[in-house]
Amino acid sequence: MESTQRTIQLLLKPGQHDGEGQRVAEAAQRHLGLHTGRVQSTALYTVNYPVSDEQLHRFATSCLQDPVLHDVALDEIRHDPQFRSYILVAKLPGVTDDEGTSAQNALGDFLNQPLDTRTQHIFSKRLYLLEEALPEASLRRLAEELLGNKLINRFELGPLTNLRDFTPRPGGGAEIITDQVPLTGLSDEQLVQLSKDNLYALNLEEMRAIRDYYTKPETQHQRRVAGLPAEPTDCELEILGQTWSEHCKHKEFSAIINFRDADTGEERQVDSLFKTYIKDATAEVDRQLRANGNDWLIKVFSDNAGAVRINPESLFVWKVETHNSPSAIDPYGGAITGILGNNRDPLATGIGGAQLLFNTNVLCFGNPDYNGPLLTNQLHPRRIFEGVRKGIEDGGNKSGVPTVNGAIIFDDRYRGKPLVYCGTGAVMPMQLAGEDSWEKKIDAGDRIIMAGGRVGKDGIHGATFSSIELDESSPATAVQIGSPITQKLAMDFLIIATRRGLIKCSTDNGAGGLSSSVGELAGISGGAVVDLEKVPLKYSGLRPWEIFLSESQERFTLVVEPDKLDQLLALGEEMEVELTDIGHFTDEGFLDVRFAGGPVAQLSLDFLHDGVPRKIMEAEWQKPVSQEPQLPANLDYNDVLRQLLGSLNICSRESVIRQYDHEVKGRTIIKPLMGATGQAPQDAAVVRFNFESWEGVAVSNGILPRFGDLDAYHMSAGAFDEAVRQIISVGGKLPNLTPGDNIFWSVNDNFCVPDSLYDPVANPDGKLKLAKLVRMCEALRDATAAYCIPLTSGKDSMKNDFKADGVKISVPPTVLYSMTAKIEDVRRTITSDFKAEGDVVYQLGTTYDELGGSEFYQLYNELGANVPQVRFAEAKELYTLMGQANDQQLIQSCHDLSDGGLAVALAEATFGNGLGAYVQVSEQQSVEVQLFSESHSRFVATVAPEDVVAFEKLLGKKATRLGVVSGDGELTVLHGQRVVIKANTAELREVWTNGPVNQTIGFGQQVAAE
Amino acid sequence: MNQSAAPAASNKVQALILTGFGINCEEEMAAAYRLAGADATIVHLNQVLHGHVSIHDYDVLNFPGGFSFGDDLGSGVVLANKLRYRQNPNGRTLLDDLREFIANGKFVLGICNGFQVLVKLGLLPNLGGDFNPEVTLTHNASSRYEDRWVRLKVNSATRTPFLKGIDSLEVPVRHGEGRLVIPDAATRKRILAEGLNCLTYCDADGCEVTQYPHNPNGADLNCAGLTDTAGQVFGLMPHPEAYLTLYNHPDWARRKRANPGIPEEGDGLRMFQNIVEHIEQQRHAAVLLETNQYSS
To answer: Superkingdom of the source (chain B) (predicted)?
Structure first.
């Protein structure tokens, strides 16, 4: 047996196609202008486990090597003489190494030995060999921009004659150090500086409130009894920073806002945006629902996800979150932890163990072709786009959750911080082992069990970090890498354990780690004691506060009754999910954290949860000055339509969509792209719940940041309507139209806004930004009331700014409404594509002179003034009639009108199977308004000739007959008698398909094997 | 998930479906067997590896799709390795059991990741009969994961009962490592001679095609699925279990409009119905044989 470090290298055999190497060479040329020559990619495994030469050889050849594809080199790094330079990509200590873990798993199987999984024995690396002798600076650029991220990877690079390897050597001994952080006697400036230095993200009032807590005689007495110093410990301040962070506490959404309308002089006070516009609005909707015998709203705003009742047996659980800050600095890691973290919310709602049904994602990026300067530590928008896309691919696909719906929005103001919204829908039985599944019950004496992954330094300060602006000094430890496989194991385990009644309730470890999960659960029983020395670590060297605050991924906190512990631990062992008993709940009123018996933190739960001082903020609204533009006369509308179809915000997303698995589980009925061509874009996804019934759920997303430049109220109202009408379009019905109809709707609101806290120097337009947020919330309240659609959960992300080199890039105020609604029979849903020649084409809803903020104006770099407005009463009337028309199965296809207006919707409806349309618009209104206005609450629908009479009788003036579906593959539009558009629909589809998004991501063209 | 150790007392065909460690298509596979009239039991792989569940209590063993162990070492590699090397308390590996299972005339199906496992474990095509890997499945020619619908043509020479009476079918592919690589001409020749390349990517007219996207991954022989020489072990990259009803197809709405009487079953269900029917017939024949023996 030898104990030295061994190396296994896998190289593709000569003649085998090296797709990765080829992609690196092409990307280096295309994105960085670097000529690498041929690139060869090889895999390296460093084995730090005692194996004999014979064992190493057999392990490499029978477990790692694919005999068809690979050659193996042992204890040497082999390369052809034609290669001149190299880049080795290793992982920094403690960074998730799934490939190394897999190899270690294989070694355990091969040796038939249980390897000590607490230690990492195998480290995986990639070695790239380059034909050209590139200078070190070019190699570093290639490494950092294409091959990895310096926050998580260690790169070795240079000429091949000087090849260096790197293997992480995790930390030294344990650091059982708990420091005091004295607050007594600090000046206001010193308090603020302390908060900034330690990334507590607390303001002066909050720091003072903490100091006051510690100086109270009562506190001092308790601390003496507990054996803690009079001054706070590092762990205590970290817990307070996390619990009081904007991310966890929503201080700005709970603030008192003094609102002033500068145009009218009106002044008023808003007592918490959340309470006024979200919680109270939903309570009112719930009252109306219940009054009408619709009592399906089960859980709102009080758990990880909202829950509504599908039928007497099951609940639908729905949550949408954002993961913006991490995605800005590590796009892949940020997005994958975003989607996996969001999965844990429905999984750990109530008792826990919901079955995930689908994912959605809505992404906002800067233009991928941006060619301006980049600030320090700012990543290029294309790189963020590609990294986030890959993260969502792996996060969803590897978890076996279909990604069924989404959107990608481009605006250069997202180039500092992208917005990454991740949504997850799940189904949970109403009863689990005889208990109401949505309840979280905890009693003193229940055990605290940590399940899933281990703890490292990754993700420390995530909660506080996402509550501040990003700047060039943003901490590397805030980045995490998700491990979908670890989470999948934990997920399978939770489903079985909850059904057997072994778990009393659960929650996920997300932002704030144990501090957040245990801190919140302790609020239910009235206290908790945690013994940190029991927490399994990825490596040594963590201080107690780091263990408590770490956001290492794929972890759940389970509440388990002592008499069920043995059974639970046995199940964990069977399913290979690590479970650790780390403490218990109490009813003594304190969060008590210890390490090996020594006190680390003790905080009164009252102070922890309710001690944060309330914020008071200033808002001032002023309507922007805007006017309608003068556009060139005699536009060629064929040309305009082509430009629109090929524009960044309208063109096909197929290259992205096809890399997401949108049909695993076999339940997806309406996918993102449909039709014989598989290229007709759909309005909402439809997923059935199981294989035993045809009940299902429709899913849509409404987001319209462009309109916010004209009026944030109408932007928010429009986004809400967009999500509603997409569901109506696929055949959904509004809720509460008839008593006891039991058609649930469940909405998540997600606000992502720039820093809206006024500061005369740092944020001079903060009052206006906050006023926009207030107006967005007002629209939300009006929309929920108008449609009687409840919010069930949501999120606000308040500091979406990127600051570096004295420049600040702020996102436009953005709100996403993610909507779900019950579908009674998925077989009766409707897709957007035209179905048959001779069907009659209608426009449903009214077009107004509302070109303001349109994609059409955008072509001419104009904003305009007339922002589209939602007329709720009119819209509700139309949606109700459409529901009736669908009951009679009168509608053959339906597509909502949004970006690009009627012209784009007509074109898209032909993309499914090569049909065309012959339509005529009214002479009473201008061509441009009719074709390109983005007025809300409108559709293009088709009706079979035999149903025309019934349809027109039902819809009355809500439907305008436009023309017929033609078999000739031509889209012809007449204004009166004048032909304004005549285009071949196959060509239009080609323009749309070859747009900038598919160009950036590239299509899956077959590459000739070498 | 059913965690009971023994199959239900029932006369129905018994399908065992493995799950755990990143497998994620077990539910639709179970639904497929149930719709085809069989009993489907989903068990965690460790229940089998630890000897709590015996595969010999079942008629057909199924390896569903997914990302077993994250597929970080190459699709299916870690799982295949576990089946080959990990010993249960009696010192047997699951490969030992699989050998016996197949020798008993039973059936094995692997879809997507499950197909990859069967190939890496040497169960497919197993020309040498010694369970050594002879071909491989690796990264698509495009180097990317892709979800799209394809059409497959069934090799008329195939012996597998799974494909009996099927000429062609539509199914989705959802994989990043589905390119079949056959390392040498001799292997290729034997696969062709024995008709083991049971499924071929083709165009809408049923003609074999090499071009992307009809052949979505660049597979040798445009091959989407393989059987062993007896037709008992069958693996394929596309997902028949994802096309159990008409409403899974991207063009279902237009097809239903064009043909209101169109059957609600999807193409994918056929192969599950086939195998269940085949096993039922086998049993029936065995009972007849037994009766004859007694009566003679």
So the answer is: Bacteria
- DSSP letter at B61? E
Residue A820 lies in a domain: no
Tell how far CA A590 is from the center of its chain. 34
Please list every residue in chain B whose beta carbon sits closer than 8 Å to the beta carbon of residue A688. Answer: 247
* Active-site annotation holder among A70, A79, A121, A247: A247
Name the pLDDT band for A455 (thresholds 50, 70, 90): confident
Last residue in a domain, options A611, A630, A660: A611
Indicate whether A31 and A83 sit together in one domain. Answer: yes
Binding residues of A: 319, 321, 344-345, 480, 508, 551-553, 749, 794, 797
Tell me the per-residue pLDDT of A317-368, one tens digit each, with 9 for 90 and over.
Answer: 999 999 998 899 889 988 998 999 999 999 999 999 999 999 999 999 999 9
Q: Which residues of A touch B120 (CB under 8 A)?
A: 66
Distance CA A390, CA A367 (A): 18
Nearest partner of A710 among A548, A858, A932, A910, judged by Cα:
A858
Q: Which domain holds residue A146?
A: 6-162
Confidence of residue A474 (pLDDT cuts 50, 70, 90): very low
Q: Which residue has the higher pLDDT, A471 or A665?
A: A665
Burial environment of residue A160 by CB neighbours within 10 A (0 to 12, 13 to 18, 19 or more)? middle
Same domain, A32 and A86: yes
pLDDT tens-digit readout, B209-232: 999 999 999 999 999 999 999 999
Facing residue for A661 by CB, picked from B141, B147, B212: B147
Domain membership of residue B66 (yes or no) is yes
Q: Given CB atoms, is A398 within the 8 Å cutoff of chain B?
A: yes
Is B5 inside a domain boundary? no
For residue A924, tell me if it sits in a domain.
Answer: no
Residue of B94, B119, B144, B149 to mutate, testing the A interface (most A Cβ within 10 Å of its Cβ): B144
| Full residue range of the structural domain in which residue B242 is found | 14-295
**By the 8 A CB rule, do B169 and B200 touch?**
no
B81: nearest CB among A109, A484, A1007 = A109
* pLDDT tens string A827-866: 999 999 999 999 999 999 999 999 999 999 999 999 999 9
Whether residue A101 sits in one domain with residue A212: no
- Cβ atoms of A347 and A494 within 8 Å: the answer is yes
**Which residues from chain B sit within 8 angstroms of residue A19, using beta carbons?**
139-143
Instruction: Flag whether A590 is in a domain.
Output: yes
Note whether residue B281 is domain-resident: yes
Does some domain include residue A124?
Answer: yes
| A487, A452 contact by CB (below 8 A) | yes
Tell me, yes or no, whether A225 and A88 share the same domain: no
Spatial CB neighbours of A437, under 8 Å, sequence gap ≥ 6: A315, A350, A351, A353, A428, A429, A430, A431, A498
CATH number of the domain within which A146 lies = 3.30.1280.10
Q: What is the pLDDT of residues B27-41, one digit of tens each?
A: 999 999 999 999 999
Indicate which residue of A323, A584, A662, A975 is catalytic.
A323
User: For residue A685, which of A646, A723, A632 has the smallest C-alpha distance?
Assistant: A723
Q: What is the CATH number of the domain that holds B35?
A: 3.40.50.880
Residue B16, phi then psi, degrees to nearest 5: -105, 130
Q: Domain with A455 in it: what CATH number? A: 3.90.650.10
Full-model pTM = 0.94
Look up A17 and say whether it is catalytic: no
Asked whether residue B4 is assigned to any structural domain, the reply reads no
Q: Residues of B numbered 49-68 whose beta carbons fall under 8 angstroms of chain A's beta carbons: which are they?
A: 50, 65-67
- Both A121 and A237 in one domain: the answer is no
State the Cα–Cα distance between residues A874 and A248, nearest whole angstrom.
39
ipTM of the complex in this document:
0.95
**Tokens standing for residue A392:** 């969502």
Domain count, chain A: 2
Residue from the list A661, A665, A892 with its beta carbon closest to the beta carbon of B257: A892
A892: distance to nearest CA of chain B, Å?
8
With CA atoms as reference, the chain A residue closest to B92 would be A112
A380 catalytic, yes or no? no
Q: Into how many domains does chain B fold?
A: 1
User: By the CB < 8 Å criterion, does A836 face chain B?
Assistant: yes
